[in-house]
């Protein structure tokens, strides 16, 4: 930053930023107008105060699941049994529909044969 400013003391930045976490600078109090030019009297008091060190934010860990491996196995087993029952019911319905369709076409063909 000093390379950009050429050590010009007349430049008073509102805030500075660094890429490292150790060099954290907080913005100075800026008036409601959004201009920091009229704060020369506050600069003297701000120089003695340093910004408090920022703590790194910790990521929240996912809560551990309350189910054990045995409970998970029981769940998977019951789920697979339910799926098998559903598949059996679907198969039963499909067979019934096929049988009804076969009976319908048999009756229809018999009717056509008698009509001729």
Automatic annotation (TrEMBL):
<feature type="compositionally biased region" description="Basic residues">
    <location>
        <begin position="54"/>
        <end position="65"/>
    </location>
</feature>
<feature type="coiled-coil region">
    <location>
        <begin position="76"/>
        <end position="103"/>
    </location>
</feature>
<keyword id="KW-0175">Coiled coil</keyword>
<feature type="region of interest" description="Disordered">
    <location>
        <begin position="26"/>
        <end position="69"/>
    </location>
</feature>
<feature type="compositionally biased region" description="Acidic residues">
    <location>
        <begin position="35"/>
        <end position="49"/>
    </location>
</feature>
<protein>
    <submittedName>
        <fullName>Uncharacterized protein</fullName>
    </submittedName>
</protein>
